[in-house]
Amino acid sequence: MNFKCLIFLLVSCLSFSQNSEFPTAKVDSIVSRIQLPVFASYQINIQKLGAKGDSVTNNKAAFDKAMALCKKNKGGTIVVPKGIYKVNGPIHFVSNVNLRLEKGAKIKFSDNPQDYLPMVLTSWEGTMLYNYSPLIYAYDCSNIAITGEGVIDGEGGRTWKSFKAKEEVGKNRSREMNHNSTPLKERKFGEGYFLRPQMIQFFNCKNVLVENVRIENSPFWCLHLLKSQSITVRGVSYKSLNYNNDGIDPEYAKDVLIEKVTFDNGDDNVAIKAGRDHEGRANTSTPSENIVIRNCNFKGLHGVVIGSEMSAGVQNVYVENCKTVGYLKRGIYIKTNADRGGYIKNIFVRNIELDEVEDCLYMTANYHGEGKGFQSEISNVHFSNITCNKASESGIVIQGFPDKKIKNISLNNIEIKSAKNAISNENAENVLMTDVFIGKRATVPSAAK
Question: For the segment 154-179, what is each residue's pLDDT rounded down to a tens digit?
Fold first, then answer.
């Protein structure tokens, strides 16, 4: 190596090391520009519209009327007092409304699929289509919130749960339509296709707050942030253990703050997505980006996941000061495959405490070994100050492709006290490890005897 090449290499390494530092100023900039919703002074107590919190009466009409009154009054707050309010059908938001559940209040949705028709425009695992309405649905709204100390119960453990075994035909049809660029108006599902609706979906919304409520028993994904921006989710708690009960799914989402959330989910806690395959790659102007996750308690399948539906790209994700309160299969999981394309870049994770996991940090470009022709770019991923008590399988996994390597990965101050397999690093370049300990730390070498 000549002198000029050596200088270039040293400068490049120094630059990479500096760029791997957690960018606090960028996080502060994102948080400062997220706007909380502001509401008019108008309030309506749902009981004054005939609602009964007796767990039997259908209160769908009262919630619809409350939304209409708020719209007429240019916004306001719908107050749900103590009681169990059965709602046979979806609650559809209008702009400038705060749905406030007081302590002891529960909204309990029906599990009759017919109640969630007619179909609405939505998304299912990364493909846009018409399907059953999400239980709480906001489309093209701004300045909206769900707040208070009450509970939202999706009643997802019986009828909706039974859909899982029957969804294959509908799922495959949706993916064929994605790959064939079928016109959106022809993508009609609903009855007969068994694609479960999301519990709460904000679609093409802006200035959104979800605060302090408890989310239980969702039919499918719990909180779906679809093509929305300027979102705050904080103080929320979960107990939702059905199939595919992701906690929070930002998808084509921008400027999102997730903080002080206590997860207990049957699937991923936070799963950052950006569309699937052909459709996602056609939407590269709207990647998921500028997402801050901090001070959360993880419990469920995986802590923070990026992918696998991420074809429009995911960038600028910042995770810090989180810990587990129970089992996780994987702590941080970045996953894509050769069907996806797109990119995952500029990911920063620091100050994470994990207890027992299967795999601690896992990055793969070959998820399920599926696909061909559209390998994804994974680059600029930085981990620092991570502890884990035990990995029953692998401590750190990095899996790229020979012709599409994962690039620019830094691991600084990582301690995994026990792992069956320490590190699997395949088809990656520029992986920088500093103070990485897996298993017992070595001390001074023993002397010859």
Answer: 999 999 999 999 999 999 999 999 99
